[in-house]
Amino acid sequence: MTLRILHTADWQLGKPFHNVPGDAGALLREARFEAVRRIADLAARYEVAAVLVAGDVFDSNLAADRTVLQALAAMRAFQGPWILLPGNHDAALAESVWTRFERLGCPPGCRIARMPEPVTLADGRLVVLPAPLTERHTLDDLTAWMDEARTPAGAVRVGLAHGSVAGRLPDAADAPNPIAADRAVTARLDYLALGDWHGALEIAPRTWYAGTPEPDRFKDNGAGHVLLVEIEGPGAVPRVTRLPVASYVWQDLVVDLTATDAGDDPAGRIDRALTTTSRPERRIVRLTLRGAVDLAGRLAVEAALERWRGELCHLELEDELVAEPSERDLLQLGDAPVIGRAARELSSLVRAGDAEERTAAALALRFLYLEAGRLERRR
Amino acid sequence: MRLRRIEIANFRKLAGPVVLDELGPGLVIVSGDNEEGKSTVLAALKAAFFEHHTVGGAIREAMTPHGGGTPEIAVEFECGSRRYRLRKAFRRGGVQLECAEQRWSDDAAERMLQDILRFERRQGRGVPRPENAGLQALFWVDQATTFQGFEPVAGGRDRLASAIAAEVGVIAGGERAKTLIMLVRERVETFYTPSQQRETGALRAAGEQLRVLEAEREQLEAKRRDYEGRVDRLARLREERRRFIERDDTGRVRARLDEVRQRLAASQELERNAGLAAESLKAAAAELARHEARQRLRRDLVDEAGRLEARAREIGRRAEAAERDLDLVRQVLVAARGAEASAADALARAEQAWAGARDRLAAARLRGETQRLHEAVARVRAAQEAAGRARALVEASPATGEALARLHALQARRDEARARVEAGATRLELRPEGERRAMLNGEPVDPGSALRLTGRAELVLEGFGRLIVVPGGEDLAEREQACRAAEQALAQALARLGAATMAEAEIAAERRREAEAELRYQESAVRSLLQAFGARGADELVARLAGRRTELEALAERVPKDTALPSEAELEAEVRSREAARTEAAERLRRARTSLAEAEARATEALAAKARLDAEHRAAARQAEEVLERLALEREQIGDEQLAARVEEASLRRRAAEESHAALERQLRGIDPEGLRERLSILERELAALESEGRRFDRDIRDLEVALREAGADAWGERLAELEGEIAAAVAERRRLELEGRAWRLLLEKLQAADQEARDALVAPIGERLRPLLHRIFPGAEPVLDPERLALTHLRRDGVVEAFDHLSIGAREQLAVLVRLAFARLLKEREGEASCLILDDALVYADETRFEAMKAILQRAAADLQIVVLTCRPRDYFGLEARYLRLEDCRSDRVGG
């Protein structure tokens, strides 16, 4: 009979989302619990033998009791077994979020893998070998013990760990908590369920990172899934299926507004870049604006951005756009030579000042354009 | 604009027609005395050009001369390239304007004038304002106003401004730029204080918010560090406890403790045995010591008995020698007693003789003093009696000095009263014929004597009848009454003194004074006597006499009263002689007694020595007997040989005990029970410490667990994480606001700089034309012009900026003329023509040098500008190339010829 497990990791419940202020941040925090609810529902639907959470269930060992209680509530739809592994964010310290998790009412179907010792499940058909972190960082490979771990014959051996597989992850050369890339082989594992890398990633047919179920950064690495792992028996190659559970989409866009022909409308180009099929209120967008526009164009861009800010869940702007007054702008400023002279002075600063001066001068120019235009309209 | 000809009639004081003709293009000097009407010429010009010909009210009245009539002015002038002729009589239909091509009248003429001279017609009856005269308000300067601050206004300023704009090609920012600058400044002030030194508003609030958040983060970070420190400590403690339990130090110490306790129990048994051996040794040693002591005592007694017997014999010999010494001393004592008795007799005799001599001397002295006291008492008594008599006289006489003085005063008052009565009396002298008689108040009167009547009198004259006389004077009766009262008072006073007359009273007073003198004399005599004897009163003197007499009586037993005595000096010499003899006898007695005392002392000493030696001899004999008795008793109890045998036995027993004890001690030293006890004590303490350590681990771990559980219960950890976000947002917000503030400030700076540049450009053309003129009067000075008002506001000299209003009147006047010349030059150059300049009594405050310089400037300016100077001092302007006109010469009977 096929053994089915759900592999997930890096829930990071209680993550504050510093870069997303206000209501949007609150929505993103709530979305992580929603993802757990969906995982519980999936576990119940697929009648899995266990849900293995490969570390970083909580964002911090200092997570509030309320966060712990919300997590327990979100997991309720699946009676278990849940195997929760302490990761680097929630290491099993002398006093940790796990000691509070137990005090606040760890349900019977929920097991915290605080010790590197085999956990037998599914009437002995499945043995989980966990490698919990008891400190945030270690230079030892905590999965080494799995090589020597004895399990009953006929049981599926599944390793559960949190760390970096050496040489297989970008930017992870000196990363702590190392895991040998061939651990599944040396420890005769049928499957090695990993956590720490936030995207779903296959390291080897028997070694996978599940990734975070709810994306939390502008990195297009396949986050937002849970892995359904199906194993026919000891020695069989597992079948791994990505099941989407995410609520929000994170997008990183770059738009160059430099006019290529006279009819180019900067605001229109922004609209085109931001318009997609997904629901805007479920999108977190980082928009980098480049190129140069005149002051009128700049005003139009700002109006468009203001509109998008209202529609999107969150819009983060990287403003590298240069605004310079055109002849048309100067005409708009009216016939007062004082204003024209000031505008020219500011323009020259935008072109030739130091970085700080350029930024201030560009903004001053926009202010001048706005205020002078307002006065002109009043006449 | 240039004036050519002016005719004035019926205008204020210029009633008769005045014609100023052939006014040249350059300088025109119009002179006239004070009150002659120079200023009226200027007023007439202004009226002709700028007042409507139908003007009424106060303005019209102000033009009309005293004698009445219609004010009329005719002016020929050039403007542009045209020559105009204006005739204005201030009545309806009284205005005509014409040039070569055209002619206008009434309102059309007035409108044409407005167009030519570009001014606004004054509306209604308002006071004329500068703009109602266009540029001429600037160039036609009334008397005594030259030095006032001025600025071109309204139409005038606009024309100057447009002339400048035509030259510099820019125009001022205008209202829009000003409004924009104001708006931007308002925006800047939402970020920075007006001085732009400090942040304000949202920018400051953002900074404060950031500081609050950072402070909260710091607090929570500290809490986190503490929390993590405790978590680490808990882990360490748990590890330590685990290792502690693993090592089982407590069990190890307990085992060692049991072993030591067993060894200690064995050593204690040995100790008890050693103790018993020590006791046995002590008992054997004590017995030996007792026997040896008895042996020593016996030897001591034999020795003591021999010594005591020898001593008794020696003392016996010394007692015999003392007996012989005592006899000799007794003989010396008898001789000394005899000598002392004879010396005592001699002293008694000498003292008796000395006492007799002293008695006699005392008796002689007492007799003398008694006699003197007796005499003094008698004299005091006599004086006291005389004083008593005198006092009685004084006390009996009332005629005191004061009483006599009062008497004299009363007498004088009476005499005065009498004199006043006499002065008012009527004197009658009767000269009867024949023997005729007269009766006064029923009493016959002597006709030969005169009568003095002081009261009403009835005189019966024989042969005549009654004659009633009433003396004159209104107060005669009062005077008489006063006189009687005075007499009565005098009589009463005399009666009180017991005198009938004043003479008697005088005698009585004299007697009293004599008695008072006697009394004082006798009292003085008594005081002198008492003072001589040092007595306080006569009674004391009498008592002292009685005392001396008693002493004399007492002395009579030793010195009979009738004994004749030598003089006191002789007696005193005898006393001294007897006293010396007595002293000598006393000294001899003292020496005899000293010798006796010494002899007695020696006798006593010898006797005592003898007695002491006897006693010692007896005691020594007794002690020897006692010692021999004790020795006999000892030997009776135990014989000498038996005692020696017991000593030998005891000695053997002690040696055996010593050996047994030493053997046990050696065994104990091998075991070291003290060391075992110390070891036991150390192990017990070690065990207690280890048990305590175990309990401490449990307690510390429990405490830390509780503390961590409590510390982790609230949401501060997440709050800390949230804070990072809030701080990042606050930093971003602050950066955004800083950038905005900086941008607004930059915009303001640029706008202000551009505005200033435009302003500077605006005043440049005026400055350019003013500077050469200015430097001739104020070398090196720089004008500061307000571009808004086109007015000279300051003068900069040697780096010092002086306000126009703060300059002297003379300097202001000169500057005002120069600025007008510069304006005129600008207009001439830009528009081809300037208004003529009319100065009414200007430059009156200039000193000679400046005046000359100003004249030269005016002369040069007149080359292309008509300048009309109205002055009362035409000679000041002599030498100029000008048309000179005397107002007096301009009076004419014709108007508008």
UniProtKB/TrEMBL annotation, chain A:
<dbReference type="InterPro" id="IPR050535">
    <property type="entry name" value="DNA_Repair-Maintenance_Comp"/>
</dbReference>
<keyword id="KW-0269">Exonuclease</keyword>
<keyword id="KW-0540">Nuclease</keyword>
<protein>
    <submittedName>
        <fullName>DNA repair exonuclease</fullName>
        <ecNumber>3.1.-.-</ecNumber>
    </submittedName>
</protein>
<dbReference type="Pfam" id="PF00149">
    <property type="entry name" value="Metallophos"/>
</dbReference>
<dbReference type="InterPro" id="IPR041796">
    <property type="entry name" value="Mre11_N"/>
</dbReference>
<dbReference type="InterPro" id="IPR004843">
    <property type="entry name" value="Calcineurin-like_PHP"/>
</dbReference>
<feature type="domain" description="Calcineurin-like phosphoesterase">
    <location>
        <begin position="3"/>
        <end position="102"/>
    </location>
</feature>
<dbReference type="InterPro" id="IPR029052">
    <property type="entry name" value="Metallo-depent_PP-like"/>
</dbReference>
<dbReference type="GO" id="GO:0004527">
    <property type="term" value="F:exonuclease activity"/>
</dbReference>
<dbReference type="InterPro" id="IPR014577">
    <property type="entry name" value="UCP033093_metalloPase"/>
</dbReference>
<keyword id="KW-0378">Hydrolase</keyword>
Automatic annotation (TrEMBL), chain B:
<feature type="domain" description="Rad50/SbcC-type AAA">
    <location>
        <begin position="5"/>
        <end position="53"/>
    </location>
</feature>
<protein>
    <submittedName>
        <fullName>AAA family ATPase</fullName>
    </submittedName>
</protein>
<feature type="coiled-coil region">
    <location>
        <begin position="476"/>
        <end position="520"/>
    </location>
</feature>
<keyword id="KW-0175">Coiled coil</keyword>
<dbReference type="InterPro" id="IPR027417">
    <property type="entry name" value="P-loop_NTPase"/>
</dbReference>
<feature type="coiled-coil region">
    <location>
        <begin position="582"/>
        <end position="740"/>
    </location>
</feature>
<feature type="coiled-coil region">
    <location>
        <begin position="203"/>
        <end position="237"/>
    </location>
</feature>
<dbReference type="Pfam" id="PF13476">
    <property type="entry name" value="AAA_23"/>
</dbReference>
<dbReference type="InterPro" id="IPR038729">
    <property type="entry name" value="Rad50/SbcC_AAA"/>
</dbReference>
